[in-house]
Please model this.
Amino acid sequence: MRFPGYFPVVLAAGAATRMGRAKEWLDFGGLTCLDLVLTACVEAGTDAPFVVTRQARFFDLHAHLKARGSPARAIEIGR
Model:
């Protein structure tokens, strides 16, 4: 089953207070948690996901997506 016309929203804006670091960067066998989620979106046949993040992490996230050639788009939430 494919889901064209669906745009997943990946939430990556948590404060990281309980874990001490942002969950999207956790490593799972050489891939980040974010990479695993975005791969699942591609495999499901969705349109390009939106990754919502905090202002402080926006540029790192944007650079990560660009370096990976990901079609996902980083969206910065307000203050």
The chain has a mean pLDDT of 92.
